[in-house]
Design goal:
There is one protein chain. With about 400 residues, the protein is α/β, with parallel strands linked by helices. The chain has one domain: TIM Barrel. The protein is about 40% helix and about 15% strand. An 8-stranded parallel barrel has the order 1-2-3-4-5-6-8-9, surrounded by 5 helices. Helix 2 packs across helix 13 and helix 7 runs parallel beside helix 9. The chain is globular, with a radius of gyration of 22 Å. The N and C termini lie far apart (about 55 Å). About 45% of the residues are buried. The structure holds (3S,4R)-3-hydroxy-2-oxopiperidin-4-yl beta-D-xylopyranoside. (3S,4R)-3-hydroxy-2-oxopiperidin-4-yl beta-D-xylopyranoside binds next to loops. This is Beta-xylanase. Belongs to the glycosyl hydrolase 10 (cellulase F) family. It catalyses: Endohydrolysis of (1->4)-beta-D-xylosidic linkages in xylans.
Length: about 400
């Protein structure tokens, strides 16, 4: 006769199997371009750099496809150099151009690391984008300090923004002028000021989250943007995460750029909106392609660029179905950008899983969130990206959203 403990163990195993099946069911079975032998073979070289001129030709302007770099040299220097010669053609400094790195003491600028990244880009015939001139994180120790609101708006921000932008010169495609100003708990119908105040971040509150605001209006943002407009010949970008869908936070982005346009006199055709895109391969954790496209098109109607600025994409488990889901979602984001009339930059955040800032746990599944694995080896997504570029460069019409699953989309 079966003992009670065996029965319990047996029932538990059924529950565990059922839960595993449920988790698996949430990961759709997707179609990929690399399932087609033609694109599979074509993608094997991973030489995206050779396709980029043809991508740019079709777009009618240079298309920038890149990733992050930190000065002086990455741990895997040869690997990194090879990838920035063959796979990526565009570079952003992961940390070296941030405020703490560039102005560690007030008016005492150390721009060598930031310029070093730009130099590294030049050595690899890659283009460079600037990140960032204003953010509430990674500040130097002297900030927030005891600067007054008028000192911040009239001196501190203009000096910082102008010095950093000028030092990098004219070969920068775009600068993230302000980063992450908007609240995660924004609601529809908030004004741009409310969208920012609701975020409870310096300088609209004291740095410790206390209730005493340093500034009570958006004068700090206007100061950063007006300064950037004077010194940056490239696009001026508002960059944020958890944006791109039809939702209240994205609505706040539209409110904010309208405010900058009206009150800081920033022309729409000098502006871009950066969608960081730190996303996950699970429904609800990424923006479906149709929603991204709607948002990009709404910006295009204003004359504003859309940029994907920091893409990484965690997966729930490191198995084939999840790796394919990752490839489908990344492919959809890339297609959304490629087929948009106003998207010319697509930047991935961290080059490989062993150096990614996205780590397992903490709602990030098993992480594995970059385009190359722990050992620098390619994954399905790495090849799928190459295939998507090839298909676009060939002049093919836009295809379906693959992340929706096989039932909704068959790739030709
Ligand atoms: C991250 C870097 O990747 C980390 O190395 C650093 O410790 C923290 O910042 N949004 C941004 C990026 O705009 O600058 C952040 O980069 C990731 C989130």
């Amino acid at each position: 006769m079966t003992s009670p403990s065996t029965m319990v163990a047996f029932s538990l195993s059924i529950v565990v199997t059922a839960l595993a099946a449920l988790a698996q069911a949430q990961t759709p079975n997707v179609s990929l371009l690399i399932d087609d032998p033609y694109y599979y073979d074509l993608a094997q070289s991973l030489d995206v750099r050779s396709l980029l001129p043809f991508v740019s030709l079709r777009k009618g302007a240079a298309f920038h496809w890149g990733s992050t770099y930190s000065y002086p040299a990455a741990a895997e220097a040869n690997w990194t150099s090879e990838k920035f010669s063959t796979y990526w053609g565009h570079i952003v400094a992961e940390n070296d151009c941030k405020w703490y790195a560039t102005e560690p003491e007030r008016q005492d600028f150390t721009l060598s690391a930031c310029e070093g990244v730009s130099q590294y880009a030049a050595e690899h015939f890659a283009t460079f984008r600037g990140h960032n001139t204003f953010w509430h994180n990674q500040l130097p120790a002297w900030l927030p300090g005891n600067v007054t609101a008028s000192d911040l708006v009239n001196n501190v921000i203009p000096t910082h923004v102008s010095t950093v932008i000028k030092s990098l010169g004219w070969n920068v495609t775009s600068w993230d002028v302000t980063n992450e100003l908007i609240s995660d708990t924004a609601t529809y119908n908030m004004t741009s000021l409310e969208c920012v105040l609701n975020a409870d971040r310096w300088p609209t509150v004291t740095y410790d989250g206390g209730s005493t605001p340093l500034v009570t209006n958006l004068s700090f943002a206007y100061a950063a943007w007006r300064t950037a407009l004077m010194y940056d010949p490239g696009k001026l970008v508002y960059n944020d995460y958890s944006t791109g869908a039809q939702d209240a936070k994205t609505e706040c982005v539209f409110q904010l750029i309208a405010d900058l346009n009206i009150n800081a006199s920033i022309p729409y055709n000098r502006m871009g909106v950066g969608f960081q895109s730190h996303v996950g391969a699970q429904e609800g954790y990424y923006v479906p392609k149709a929603e991204l496209e709607t948002t990009f098109a709404r910006l295009a109607a204003l004359g504003v660029d859309a940029l994907v600025t920091e893409m990484d994409l965690w997966i729930q488990a490191n198995d084939t179905i999840n790796q394919r889901y990752q490839a489908a979602i990344w492919g959809d984001y890339l297609d959304a950008c490629l087929y948009a009339s106003n998207c010319f930059e697509f930047v991935n955040w961290d080059n490989r899983d062993d150096t990614s800032w996205i780590t397992p746990g903490d709602g990030h599944g098993v992480a594995m969130a970059t385009l190359f694995d722990m050992y620098g080896n390619p994954k399905p997504v790495t090849y799928e990206i190459m295939a998507r570029f090839a298909r676009y460069a060939e002049g093919a019409a836009e295809m379906c959203a693959t992340a929706l699953g096989t039932e909704s989309c068959t790739v030709y």
